[in-house]
UniProtKB/TrEMBL annotation:
<dbReference type="GO" id="GO:0005737">
    <property type="term" value="C:cytoplasm"/>
</dbReference>
<protein>
    <submittedName>
        <fullName>Nucleoside-diphosphate-sugar epimerase</fullName>
    </submittedName>
</protein>
<dbReference type="InterPro" id="IPR036291">
    <property type="entry name" value="NAD(P)-bd_dom_sf"/>
</dbReference>
<dbReference type="GO" id="GO:0004029">
    <property type="term" value="F:aldehyde dehydrogenase (NAD+) activity"/>
</dbReference>
<dbReference type="Pfam" id="PF13460">
    <property type="entry name" value="NAD_binding_10"/>
</dbReference>
<dbReference type="InterPro" id="IPR016040">
    <property type="entry name" value="NAD(P)-bd_dom"/>
</dbReference>
<dbReference type="InterPro" id="IPR051783">
    <property type="entry name" value="NAD(P)-dependent_oxidoreduct"/>
</dbReference>
<feature type="domain" description="NAD(P)-binding">
    <location>
        <begin position="8"/>
        <end position="157"/>
    </location>
</feature>
Length: 307
């Protein structure tokens, strides 16, 4: 891999992938809609070239993909646009990859697994139980039928530097600002999160392995953790003393009466109550140890970035 294009480079995982590639000495094109944000994030990095553009404009995308060996697809769009636009976005990425004979490494979530439980391996049948899960499965099938060499990596919920659009961000931000904080879902249920730099390390390593292509890969976090344990770590790190309230599904549904985005969030709330927990056995057997920063250290670094 000599040069890579990272789509969604201004988002949490995209940012981490750009950083990981650059640290390995690989030239990177960082692609996102807002040029000023890209410059703020990467202007000081001599390995990174800014490529602002619209992922729905095929000319922007194919121009950015020129001379790259691989495209890392980390871009996302709001839930409310998934049904109409998510497949179109991926088709554009596939066309750009084909135009330049580039490989494709895709950041995916766990929605297509449905309510699969714990220790979920790549052989688990995809049985989505929501509209968004079915859309993700349709996108995955499209990638596999495209003829483009691909890696599809399934990740749990993110947290980390620059990961603002995440379920944990509001909690972390309010704690840091010493405001009354909220936590989405019951705080007693063990769930899985992945520190974005760990996810980026794992995905970039997969992209460097020729025998990793044409397959799905599950990338777990550093074990499971309860909301109570997260709050306890945050109190230790920041001396935060205010109450952390629990956001329930009924509260999200109530907000959904007035806000379409909240209606879409409510559909996926089951993952907070009956979490899907990924197995990393395949990665460990074929690639090596999965990068796993402890939750305490990952939260410390995230708070430091936000501060």
């Amino acid at each position: 891999m000599k040069k890579a294009l990272v789509l969604g480079a201004s988002g949490g995982m995209g940012y981490a992938i750009v950083k990981e590639l650059s640290q390995r000495g690989i030239a990177v094109k960082a692609f996102a809609r807002t040029e000023n944000k890209l410059k703020k994030l990467f202007a000081q990095d001599t390995n990174v070239t800014i490529a602002a553009g619209d992922i729905f404009q095929l000319d922007d995308l194919t121009a950015a993909a020129q001379d790259v060996d691989i495209i890392f697809q980390a871009a996302n769009i709001p839930y409310t646009e998934w049904e109409e636009n998510l497949l179109q976005m991926m088709n554009n990425v596939i066309i750009a990859a084909k135009a330049h004979s580039a490989k494709l490494a895709v950041v995916d979530n766990i929605y297509a697994y449905g309510n699969a439980g714990t220790n979920v391996t790549e052989t688990q049948p995809k049985n989505p139980c929501t509209k968004k899960g079915r859309i993700r499965l349709e996108v995955e099938t499209t990638i596999k039928q495209s003829g483009v060499p691909f890696i599809i990596a399934h990740f749990p919920d993110f947290y980390g530097p620059n990961a603002y659009n995440t379920i944990l961000h509001v909690t972390l931000q309010n704690v840091l600002q010493n405001k009354r904080a909220i936590f989405v879902g019951k705080q007693t249920i063990p769930r899985e999160f992945i520190f974005t730099p760990d996810g980026a390390k794992a995905l970039v390593q997969l992209a460097l392995e020729e025998n990793a292509y044409g397959e799905n890969w599950n990338i777990p976090g550093a074990g499971v953790i309860t909301g109570e344990e997260i709050v306890s770590i945050l109190r230790e790190l920041t001396h935060y003393q205010k109450k952390v309230s629990t956001v329930s599904k009924s509260m999200i549904q109530m907000l959904g009466l007035f806000n379409r985005e909240m209606r879409e969030v409510a559909e996926m709330f089951y993952l907070n109550e009956t979490p899907v927990v990924l197995s990393g056995e395949k990665y460990e057997e074929r690639i090596g140890p999965i990068p796993q920063t402890s939750y305490r250290e990952g939260l410390r670094q995230t708070l430091e970035y936000l501060g």
